[in-house]
Write a structure and sequence with these properties.
By secondary structure, the protein is mainly alpha-helical. It contains 13 helices and two strands. It is elongated, with a radius of gyration of 21 Å.
Length: 262
Protein backbone atom coordinates (compact mmCIF):
# COMPACT_ATOMS: atom_id res chain seq x y z
CA UNK A 1 0.00 0.00 0.00
CA UNK A 2 1.28 3.46 -0.87
CA UNK A 3 1.76 5.81 2.09
CA UNK A 4 -0.68 8.68 2.22
CA UNK A 5 2.14 11.19 1.80
CA UNK A 6 3.28 10.08 -1.69
CA UNK A 7 3.47 13.06 -3.99
CA UNK A 8 3.22 11.96 -7.63
CA UNK A 9 4.02 15.56 -8.57
CA UNK A 10 6.79 14.84 -11.03
CA UNK A 11 10.26 13.35 -11.45
CA UNK A 12 12.92 13.75 -8.81
CA UNK A 13 16.03 15.55 -10.01
CA UNK A 14 18.25 16.29 -7.00
CA UNK A 15 21.20 14.13 -6.05
CA UNK A 16 19.91 13.65 -2.53
CA UNK A 17 16.48 12.62 -3.74
CA UNK A 18 18.20 10.09 -6.01
CA UNK A 19 19.83 8.64 -2.94
CA UNK A 20 16.51 8.50 -1.11
CA UNK A 21 15.03 6.58 -4.05
CA UNK A 22 18.05 4.23 -4.09
CA UNK A 23 18.97 5.34 -7.60
CA UNK A 24 22.46 4.06 -8.54
CA UNK A 25 25.05 6.82 -8.55
CA UNK A 26 28.01 5.94 -10.78
CA UNK A 27 29.98 9.13 -11.47
CA UNK A 28 33.09 9.46 -9.30
CA UNK A 29 32.37 13.01 -8.17
CA UNK A 30 28.83 12.00 -7.17
CA UNK A 31 30.16 9.18 -4.98
CA UNK A 32 32.57 11.62 -3.36
CA UNK A 33 29.77 14.12 -2.85
CA UNK A 34 27.62 11.47 -1.17
CA UNK A 35 30.46 10.46 1.15
CA UNK A 36 31.15 14.06 2.18
CA UNK A 37 27.45 14.74 2.77
CA UNK A 38 27.31 11.68 5.02
CA UNK A 39 30.39 12.85 6.90
CA UNK A 40 29.01 16.35 7.44
CA UNK A 41 25.43 15.45 8.34
CA UNK A 42 26.62 12.48 10.41
CA UNK A 43 28.79 14.71 12.59
CA UNK A 44 32.28 13.68 11.44
CA UNK A 45 32.82 17.32 10.56
CA UNK A 46 31.07 19.92 12.68
CA UNK A 47 30.11 23.51 11.86
CA UNK A 48 33.24 25.61 11.61
CA UNK A 49 35.53 22.63 10.96
CA UNK A 50 37.86 22.80 7.99
CA UNK A 51 37.32 20.03 5.44
CA UNK A 52 40.37 18.07 4.22
CA UNK A 53 42.41 19.59 1.42
CA UNK A 54 41.94 18.60 -2.20
CA UNK A 55 45.14 16.58 -1.97
CA UNK A 56 43.99 14.66 1.11
CA UNK A 57 40.57 14.00 -0.40
CA UNK A 58 42.12 12.85 -3.65
CA UNK A 59 44.21 10.33 -1.69
CA UNK A 60 41.22 9.18 0.37
CA UNK A 61 38.99 8.58 -2.64
CA UNK A 62 41.77 7.54 -5.05
CA UNK A 63 40.55 10.28 -7.36
CA UNK A 64 41.83 13.16 -9.43
CA UNK A 65 41.58 16.79 -8.37
CA UNK A 66 38.89 17.50 -10.97
CA UNK A 67 36.41 15.08 -9.34
CA UNK A 68 37.25 16.49 -5.90
CA UNK A 69 36.63 20.06 -7.06
CA UNK A 70 33.28 19.09 -8.61
CA UNK A 71 32.22 17.35 -5.39
CA UNK A 72 33.22 20.38 -3.32
CA UNK A 73 31.29 22.64 -5.69
CA UNK A 74 28.16 20.57 -5.08
CA UNK A 75 28.70 20.57 -1.33
CA UNK A 76 28.87 24.37 -1.46
CA UNK A 77 25.71 24.52 -3.62
CA UNK A 78 23.90 22.51 -0.95
CA UNK A 79 25.00 25.04 1.65
CA UNK A 80 26.85 22.45 3.71
CA UNK A 81 30.25 24.12 3.35
CA UNK A 82 31.73 27.42 2.24
CA UNK A 83 34.82 27.37 0.05
CA UNK A 84 37.27 30.06 1.13
CA UNK A 85 40.81 30.93 0.01
CA UNK A 86 42.24 28.96 2.95
CA UNK A 87 40.03 25.91 2.40
CA UNK A 88 36.42 24.79 2.87
CA UNK A 89 34.63 25.12 6.19
CA UNK A 90 31.47 23.32 7.28
CA UNK A 91 28.36 25.47 7.77
CA UNK A 92 25.42 25.13 10.13
CA UNK A 93 22.56 22.92 8.90
CA UNK A 94 20.21 25.88 8.89
CA UNK A 95 22.32 27.38 6.09
CA UNK A 96 21.77 24.31 3.87
CA UNK A 97 19.26 23.94 1.06
CA UNK A 98 16.09 21.87 1.27
CA UNK A 99 17.82 19.11 -0.68
CA UNK A 100 19.63 17.85 2.43
CA UNK A 101 16.32 16.65 3.89
CA UNK A 102 16.22 13.57 1.68
CA UNK A 103 19.63 12.51 2.91
CA UNK A 104 18.68 13.00 6.56
CA UNK A 105 15.49 10.99 6.11
CA UNK A 106 17.24 8.08 4.37
CA UNK A 107 20.07 7.72 6.90
CA UNK A 108 18.53 4.68 8.63
CA UNK A 109 16.10 1.81 8.02
CA UNK A 110 13.27 4.12 9.12
CA UNK A 111 13.23 7.89 8.68
CA UNK A 112 13.62 10.10 11.73
CA UNK A 113 10.02 10.37 13.06
CA UNK A 114 10.58 13.86 14.50
CA UNK A 115 11.93 15.23 11.22
CA UNK A 116 9.21 13.45 9.21
CA UNK A 117 6.55 14.96 11.48
CA UNK A 118 8.07 18.43 11.13
CA UNK A 119 8.02 18.11 7.34
CA UNK A 120 4.42 16.94 7.40
CA UNK A 121 3.46 19.98 9.49
CA UNK A 122 5.01 22.26 6.84
CA UNK A 123 3.38 20.38 3.96
CA UNK A 124 -0.03 20.55 5.64
CA UNK A 125 0.41 24.30 6.19
CA UNK A 126 1.35 24.81 2.53
CA UNK A 127 -1.72 22.86 1.40
CA UNK A 128 -3.95 24.99 3.60
CA UNK A 129 -2.52 28.20 2.14
CA UNK A 130 -3.01 26.79 -1.37
CA UNK A 131 -6.64 25.90 -0.60
CA UNK A 132 -7.28 29.36 0.86
CA UNK A 133 -5.99 31.00 -2.30
CA UNK A 134 -8.20 28.76 -4.42
CA UNK A 135 -11.23 29.71 -2.36
CA UNK A 136 -10.47 33.42 -2.79
CA UNK A 137 -9.39 33.56 -6.42
CA UNK A 138 -10.41 30.41 -8.34
CA UNK A 139 -13.38 30.33 -10.69
CA UNK A 140 -16.43 28.18 -10.03
CA UNK A 141 -15.28 25.80 -12.77
CA UNK A 142 -11.87 25.32 -11.11
CA UNK A 143 -13.47 24.62 -7.77
CA UNK A 144 -15.84 22.12 -9.37
CA UNK A 145 -12.86 20.18 -10.71
CA UNK A 146 -11.48 19.86 -7.20
CA UNK A 147 -14.85 18.90 -5.73
CA UNK A 148 -15.16 16.16 -8.36
CA UNK A 149 -12.23 14.37 -6.70
CA UNK A 150 -13.88 14.15 -3.28
CA UNK A 151 -16.63 11.46 -3.64
CA UNK A 152 -14.31 8.42 -3.24
CA UNK A 153 -13.11 9.85 0.07
CA UNK A 154 -16.68 10.15 1.30
CA UNK A 155 -17.26 6.41 0.98
CA UNK A 156 -16.26 3.81 3.57
CA UNK A 157 -15.97 0.95 1.07
CA UNK A 158 -13.41 2.57 -1.23
CA UNK A 159 -10.44 0.27 -1.83
CA UNK A 160 -7.07 1.20 -0.32
CA UNK A 161 -5.66 1.79 -3.79
CA UNK A 162 -8.49 4.08 -4.85
CA UNK A 163 -8.36 5.93 -1.54
CA UNK A 164 -4.61 6.52 -1.93
CA UNK A 165 -4.90 7.65 -5.52
CA UNK A 166 -7.76 10.01 -4.69
CA UNK A 167 -5.85 11.66 -1.85
CA UNK A 168 -2.79 12.11 -4.03
CA UNK A 169 -4.88 13.55 -6.89
CA UNK A 170 -6.66 15.92 -4.49
CA UNK A 171 -3.43 17.25 -2.97
CA UNK A 172 -1.87 17.65 -6.40
CA UNK A 173 -4.94 19.46 -7.73
CA UNK A 174 -5.00 21.86 -4.77
CA UNK A 175 -1.32 22.70 -5.15
CA UNK A 176 -1.48 23.21 -8.90
CA UNK A 177 -4.74 25.18 -8.80
CA UNK A 178 -3.32 27.66 -6.29
CA UNK A 179 -1.20 29.26 -9.07
CA UNK A 180 1.35 30.08 -6.36
CA UNK A 181 4.71 29.11 -7.84
CA UNK A 182 6.91 29.53 -4.72
CA UNK A 183 4.44 27.45 -2.71
CA UNK A 184 4.36 24.76 -5.40
CA UNK A 185 8.16 24.56 -5.61
CA UNK A 186 8.65 24.27 -1.84
CA UNK A 187 5.87 21.70 -1.44
CA UNK A 188 7.16 19.66 -4.35
CA UNK A 189 10.71 19.62 -2.99
CA UNK A 190 9.49 18.42 0.39
CA UNK A 191 7.15 15.82 -1.14
CA UNK A 192 9.88 14.42 -3.37
CA UNK A 193 12.17 13.83 -0.43
CA UNK A 194 9.62 12.73 2.17
CA UNK A 195 7.59 10.23 0.15
CA UNK A 196 10.36 7.77 -0.85
CA UNK A 197 11.69 7.56 2.71
CA UNK A 198 8.23 6.61 3.99
CA UNK A 199 7.91 3.54 1.78
CA UNK A 200 9.21 1.53 4.73
CA UNK A 201 6.04 2.51 6.62
CA UNK A 202 3.59 1.63 3.86
CA UNK A 203 2.50 -1.71 5.33
CA UNK A 204 1.92 -0.13 8.75
CA UNK A 205 -0.50 2.65 7.73
CA UNK A 206 -4.09 2.28 8.92
CA UNK A 207 -6.71 4.56 7.40
CA UNK A 208 -9.46 6.02 9.57
CA UNK A 209 -12.04 5.98 6.78
CA UNK A 210 -14.84 7.34 8.92
CA UNK A 211 -12.93 10.51 9.78
CA UNK A 212 -11.72 10.90 6.21
CA UNK A 213 -15.31 10.62 4.97
CA UNK A 214 -16.56 13.22 7.46
CA UNK A 215 -13.78 15.67 6.64
CA UNK A 216 -14.25 15.18 2.89
CA UNK A 217 -17.95 16.06 3.17
CA UNK A 218 -17.10 19.15 5.23
CA UNK A 219 -14.45 20.19 2.73
CA UNK A 220 -16.93 19.83 -0.12
CA UNK A 221 -19.40 22.09 1.69
CA UNK A 222 -16.70 24.67 2.45
CA UNK A 223 -15.80 24.84 -1.25
CA UNK A 224 -19.46 25.18 -2.23
CA UNK A 225 -20.04 28.01 0.22
CA UNK A 226 -16.53 29.50 -0.16
CA UNK A 227 -16.36 29.45 3.62
CA UNK A 228 -12.80 30.39 4.53
CA UNK A 229 -13.02 29.84 8.34
CA UNK A 230 -14.60 26.43 7.78
CA UNK A 231 -11.90 25.53 5.25
CA UNK A 232 -9.16 26.38 7.73
CA UNK A 233 -10.79 24.24 10.41
CA UNK A 234 -11.10 21.28 8.05
CA UNK A 235 -7.46 21.47 6.98
CA UNK A 236 -6.44 21.62 10.63
CA UNK A 237 -8.45 18.44 11.16
CA UNK A 238 -6.92 16.76 8.09
CA UNK A 239 -3.45 17.76 9.29
CA UNK A 240 -4.05 16.20 12.69
CA UNK A 241 -5.39 13.01 11.11
CA UNK A 242 -2.40 12.72 8.77
CA UNK A 243 0.06 13.23 11.61
CA UNK A 244 -1.70 10.68 13.78
CA UNK A 245 -1.66 8.16 10.93
CA UNK A 246 2.04 8.67 10.34
CA UNK A 247 3.05 8.51 13.99
CA UNK A 248 0.96 5.35 14.49
CA UNK A 249 2.69 3.82 11.46
CA UNK A 250 6.06 4.63 13.01
CA UNK A 251 5.00 2.98 16.27
CA UNK A 252 3.79 -0.14 14.45
CA UNK A 253 6.96 -0.34 12.36
CA UNK A 254 9.37 -0.32 15.29
CA UNK A 255 11.40 -3.57 15.66
CA UNK A 256 9.82 -5.94 18.14
CA UNK A 257 6.30 -4.63 17.73
CA UNK A 258 5.06 -7.74 15.91
CA UNK A 259 6.70 -10.02 18.43
CA UNK A 260 5.18 -8.03 21.28
CA UNK A 261 1.73 -8.34 19.74
CA UNK A 262 2.18 -12.08 19.41
Amino acid sequence: MQPIWSDQLGPTTSLLSQRARKTPVTAKHEKITEALITDILGGRYRPGDRLPSERDLALRFASNRGSIREAMRRIQQLGLAEILPGGARVQERRAASLDVIGHLLSAGPLPDPVLADQILVVINALLQVAAEQILEFASDEEIEKIRALLPPLMKRDTTDSEHNQTRIALLRSILLSSQNLPLQLIARTLFEQLAPSLQSLADHVTLDRERYAAYARQLDLAFIQRDLPALRGIFDAFAQLNRESMLNAFANAQPGQEAAKG
